[in-house]
Amino acid sequence: MAAELSGGAQRTAPFLAACRRQATPYTPIWIMRQAGRYLPEYRELRAKVDFVTLTRTPELAAEVTLQPLRRYELDAAILFSDIMTPLQGMGVDLDFDPGPVVRTPVRTAEQVEALPALVPERDVPFVMETVRLIRANVPRNTPLIGFAGGPFTLMCYLVCGKPSKEFEAARALIYAQPAVAEALLDRLADAMAAYLRAQAQAGAQALMLFESWAGLLAPPEFERFALRAAARTMAALRGLDVPLIYYANQGSALMESLKQLDVDVIGVDWRTPLGTVRRVLGPEKAVQGNLDPAALFSSPEDLERHVDRVLDEAGDAPGHIFNLGHGIWQNTDPDAVARLVDYVHERSARAPSAR
Ligand code: CP3
Predict the structure, then answer these.
(1) Distance between alpha carbon 135 and the CA centroid of its chain, in Å?
(2) Which residues carry out catalysis?
(3) Structural domains of the chain, count
(4) Model confidence over 95-123: pLDDT tens digits?
(5) For the packed helices 125-137 and 58-71, what is the interaxial angle rounded to 10 degrees?
(6) Domain holding 44: CATH number?
(7) Are 40 and 55 in contact (CB under 8 A)?
(8) pLDDT tens-place string over residues 290-344
(9) Which residue range is the domain that position 279 belongs to?
(10) Which residues are registered as beta bridge partners of 322?
(11) pTM score, two decimals?
(12) Which residues are paired to 286 by β-bridges?
C-alpha cells in the first residue's frame, strides 16, 4: 500500500516502520524469492534469456523485480540478483545450473589470499544501476531491499563448489584449518559490506544478509565463524541509517547467539514458533517470518488458519514482518500468493493487535 502524504510529510512505509519496531496499520508482508520461477511472466522471460544475463542486464533485472509487485500488494521489493553475483565480480569463475557451480573451489590459504577485494561500482556496476531503475519505477513507492549472502553461506558454496546437503568440505575446513576459514570469512564479510553499502547508496532502503546454511553449525562454531563474520559486515553498515536484517535458516538452536547480533530484524524459518523467537530475542529486535512455504499448498480456508497462527505467535507488539520461513517453491500457485498477501493485510488490520 502506498506511502501516503499526510500533513506534507511522507508517512513511513509499513515495512520500514516494522523494521524499526514502530506501530503499523497492518502487518507488512513480502516473500523470500518473490521474483522467480513460480510466476509465469518470469518463466516467459527466462525462456528467452539465461539467468546470468538476467542478473547483469539492469532493465531486465528491474523488470523481474517489479513483476510480483504488479500482481500483489507486497510491502517490499527485493533486488533481483543472486548471492553469488558479487563473487563473479571478484573474479570467481562460476555458473548457474540452476544452483551456483564454482569451477575452482577455494580451499587453501593461497587461494584465500588471492581473492581480490570487491569494488562494487567497478566490478558489479549493473547491480547499482538495477537498484536505481527499480527505485525510479517501483509501484506505490514500495521500499526496496538490497541483499547479499551471509559470509558463511558464501563460504559454503566457494569451498564446496556446488550446492550440497551437508557442505562437508566447508565444515571440515572450519575444524581442520580454522585460521584459513576465518581469513576467508573476513574477506567475504568485507566484500559484502562494500557491496551492501553501494546498494544503499544507489537507493536500497533496507539491507539483508541471507544466511541460508546457518543451521549447519552448532552454537560455538556458529558464533566463532558465521556470526562473527556477519557482525563484521553489519558493523560496517551501521552508520547508513537503513534497517539491517539477518536471516538465519534452520536457526532454532541459535536464538541465544542471534540475540547478540546488532541488527534491526532477525528472519527465521518455520521451525521455531515466533512467540519463542520473540521471547528469546527480546524487545530490541523485530522478527521476520515464518510461514512454511509448503502451507501455500493448503486449501484457502486452511491457509487462513496457518496465517492466523503465525500472526498470533508474533503477538501484539510492533516489529513483525510477515514472510515465508524460506524461499517460495517454484511449483506454488500464484493465486495462493494473492490470497496470502490479501489475508495477512486484512486479518492484521482488523485484529485487536492492529493498534
Ligand atoms: O528474493 C528474490 O525474489 C530475489 C532473488 C534471489 C535469487 N536468489 C534469484 C535466483 C535471491 C534473494 C537469491 C538468494 C539466494 N541464492 C540464496 C539465499 C536464499 C535462499 O534461498 O536460501 C541462495 C542459497 C542462492 C543460491 C542459489 N541460486 C541456488 C541454490 C539456486 C538454484 C535453486 C533455486 O533455488 O532456484 C540459485 C539460482 C537462482 N537464484 C534462481 C533465481 C530466480 C533460479 C535461476 C533460474 O531461473 O533458473
Answers:
(1) 18
(2) 33, 37, 46, 82, 157
(3) 1
(4) 999 999 999 999 999 999 999 999 999 99
(5) 40
(6) 3.20.20.210
(7) no
(8) 999 999 999 999 999 999 999 999 999 999 999 999 999 999 999 999 999 999 9
(9) 3-354
(10) 29, 289
(11) 0.95
(12) 265
